[in-house]
Every structure is written in C-alpha cells, then in structure tokens.
Design a protein that fits this description.
alpha/beta, Aspartate Aminotransferase, domain 2, 14% strand, 457 residues, seven-stranded mixed β-sheet, 16 helices, Aspartate Aminotransferase, domain 1, 2 domains
C-alpha cells in the first residue's frame, strides 16, 4: 500500500455532485475567474484550504452536546485552557475565533512604523496584519526554500545567519520573531527542532520575543519524529512540549491541527502583554473566556488538540498527502519537494511556463483545474504575494509561483486523491492551452480573496 488505510470508520456521509463543464464555465464567468467565488455545492473535490474543512470525530461531536454557553467563566473555557496549557506550557491563554484574530490582537499591539516582524515566511493574513499596522514583514527562509524541486528536508527553516545579522543591526525595532510550523508559504515544509532551538537562542541573546505560529504544529512534530535524529523514541506530545518550550508564546488557528471547523487562541508567558490583548478582544470578539466562540467550540478544540497528535492519524494524514504528490511527480509534474504535511504544491511556473508572472500563471492553473475537473485549489504566487514597484510601476513577482492543493483532514478517500492526480495529469498534456490572465478588479489588501480577472485572448 502506498499509504496506510484510514484509522477510522465513516459514520456520516455528505453528497457531492458532479457539474458539467458548461456549468463550470458559467460559474467561472460569474465569479470573475476567482475560485473563491464559486459556491461549494458546485465543487467536486475542494482543496482550496485545509482550514476548518476537516471532519470532526464522534468524541468531538459528543463534546458539542455538553458545551457550557455561559457568557463568562464557562466550564468549557476551563477545559480548553487546561488543554492548551498542557500541550504548549504557556500559562496565559486567550481564545479567539480563528488564527487571524490572534494575529490582529498581537500585531495591533506591538507594531508601529519603523518596526520589523521577522519570520521564516509570513503567510498572507500574517503579512497583512503586520503591514496594516505600519510595520515591515521580513521573510528569512533558508535558500533551499526557493528551489521547489530540491528534495531536501527542513526547507521550512529560518536562515539563522540572516536572523542574527538583523537582530544585531536592528534589535530595538524588532518586537517579535515568529516561526511558522509548518512553513505554509514555502510549500508546507517542516521546520527542524534544531532550527527552532537556534532561532530561540538568538532571540534570547538579543532580548527579542520568539513566538510560534503553530496552526500545523502536530504535522511538524510528526516530521521531527520521523526524520530528525533523537526523536524516534519520543511521543508527539513530548516533541510538541519541547518545541513550545523554546518559545515565549504562540498563536494557533485551531482549524488545522486541532481538527475543528472554527477556533483558535494566543498563549504566552508574558503576563503584561497577556493582560493587554483581552482589552481589544472584548471590543471586537467578546469576553476573554469565550473569545468569539461558542462553548461547544471550546469543547471541540480541547478534544481535537489531542486527537491531532495521535500517531496513527498523523501517519495516515501525511502519507495521504504524499500519495497525491508522488502520483503527480511520477507523471512528470513539477511539485514542491519533498511533499509537506497538509498539501501538495504544484510549481505553476513550470506547469504554465508560457505564462509570465504578471499574467498570473498560478491563478490561470486554478481556473483550468476547476473548469476541466471541478477541483478547487488556490494560488500562492503573484496574485497573493506579488505587487507593483511604486518607483518603476513594474510587477514584482514572489520567488515561488505555486498552486496549493490543501487536503482537508479525515474527509477525502484514496479514490478522490487518485481522481485529482489523474485529472491534473490529463491537463498537463494540453497545458499550453491554458490562457494568461489580467486583473479587472483588485482590493488594496489581500486582493486574492475578492479579485476579478479575465483571460487574455
């Protein structure tokens, strides 16, 4: 078997339907060629995101029934708080309805003009929250991260030499260093414990707080367990606790590795900062013991944090993603190698080598994938991260032009993955028929969510 059988049985099913190509063509036209605008009931296999799209377990559904919906001090909050403290070790825990709220609370508090937030690679909402608060978002990935086909482990790592140089030159203006695990924008690549230790040591040396964006911490810990020397005999929770022990705090979109449809938190050691954030939370989300969540959601997160660290699940989870990646690679399709924990990233620059970056090859590929097969992915390239140089007016492309196929947790079967691989393989034969695109509308921030485009004939 190319990956182990599912470590669960299916109790409830949801119908999905196949649309015709003509239907999909009409839907794309109405959506301005933006797959974010396609209704979900017109998607056959939805790989837009792994955030909040997973299937909850029977234990989590049971937890929903005992959620305490008290406005303040609910029993469900204390279960949630205890679980977060147990896994991360951080004493001060604030719930949020998802990860970007945690980012907003944090960066609106610590950022200002002239400040720089350093990361291995910022994801889109992280970068937007930093920049909307007038600070610079600086990426310091290792150079290997920019070579998609390089099959080297730990391409999610931070360049520690560059980190040290920036801390030496500018530490008074660096309020935070963040390590995203796994590194989503770099192809879902894991970060080694050695690199986390090194970044932590430098931050302590220069007196700069070090935080973990831990949306996919369990998958990252599984890679450490499997591939980093000295960790094979440790449990996933032991590895997780060591990972968090090197940081001063963390935030999480629990919609990933906590296996829930909504939820998140920010947790830390700093009591003064921890006291400031709930003041903003009350204004925009709710009382600090529910943070915009229902009590039932807090229950589901408390259970899911542990389920997401079960080794049988993680072995199956990462192997299913690898199965899809291997099928594409074997068919000659360039993907980010090695395959990460939550998604397969197609190298859109190689797939659509006839389309220049300013004509959005990644978006063009997502349009073609939906049009031909009813599959929805997402571009991580020039639409998401590109911009115009204000001095020259020329398009500045990011280092990578990718299409992410993010696999929801405990949702799709082997047959679905085979369908996706075979569909993309067929498309690859006629890839030069994929048309370039131009923008007809873009928002000033996070434009990829609402942009409208048209094909260049």
């Amino acid at each position: 078997m190319r990956f182990p059988a599912e470590p669960f049985r299916i109790k409830v099913v949801e119908k999905i339907r196949r649309t015709t190509r003509d239907e999909r063509e009409q839907l794309l036209e109405r959506a301005g060629l933006n797959v974010f605008m396609i209704p979900s009931d017109a998607i056959y296999v939805d790989l837009l995101t792994d955030s909040g799209t997973g299937a909850m377990s029977d234990q989590q559904w049971a937890g929903l029934m005992i959620g305490d919906e008290s406005y303040a001090g609910s029993k469900s909050f204390f279960k949630f708080e205890a679980a977060v403290r147990d896994v991360t070790g951080f004493p001060y825990v604030t719930p949020t309805h998802q990860g970007r709220v945690a980012e907003n609370l944090l960066f609106s508090t610590i950022c200002a003009a002239g400040k720089t937030i350093i990361a291995n690679t910022h994801f889109d909402t992280t970068r937007a929250n930093v920049e909307m608060n007038n600070a610079e978002a600086l990426d310091l990935p290792v150079k290997e991260a920019y070579d998609p086909q390089l099959g080297k482990l730990w391409k999610g790592n931070m360049d520690l030499e560059k980190l040290e140089a920036n801390l030496k030159a500018n530490r008074d203006n660096i309020p935070l260093v963040v390590m995203t695990v796994t590194n989503n924008s770099a192809g879902g690549q894991p970060v080694s414990m050695e690199n986390i230790r090194g970044a932590s040591r430098l931050c302590k040396q220069f007196g700069v707080p070090f935080f973990i964006d831990c949306a996919r911490f369990a998958e990252n810990c599984w890679f450490i367990h499997e591939f980093e020397a000295g960790y094979k005999g440790k449990t996933i929770i032991e590895i997780a606790r060591e990972l968090f022990s090197h940081a001063d705090g963390c935030w999480m979109s629990a919609k990933k590795d906590a296996l829930v449809n909504i939820g998140g938190f920010i947790a830390m050691n700093d009591i003064e900062l921890a006291r400031r954030l709930p003041q903003k939370l009350i204004l925009i989300e709710g009382f600090p013991t529910y943070g915009g969540l229902a009590g039932r959601d807090l229950e589901a997160v408390a259970i899911g944090l542990y389920e997401g660290m079960e080794p049988e699940y993680l072995q199956y989870r990462t192997a299913q993603v690898r199965y899809l990646g291997d099928m594409l690679w074997d068919a000659g399709i360039a993907i980010v190698r090695p395959v990460g924990g939550h998604a397969v990233f197609i190298d859109a620059k190689a797939f659509c080598d006839h389309i220049s970056p300013e004509q959005f090859p990644g978006v063009a590929l997502t349009v073609a994938l939906y049009r031909e097969a009813g599959i929805r992915g997402v571009e991580i390239g020039s639409l998401m991260f590109g911009h115009l140089d204000p001095a020259t007016g020329k398009h500045v492309a990011p280092h990578l032009e990718l299409v992410r196929l993010a696999i929801p947790r405990r949702v799709y079967t082997t047959a679905h993955m085979t369908y996706v691989a075979e569909s993309i393989t067929e498309m690859y034969k006629d890839r030069h028929k994929i048309k370039p695109l131009r923008l007809t509308y873009e928002a000033p921030v996070l434009r990829h969510f609402t942009a409208r485009l048209e094909e260049i004939i």
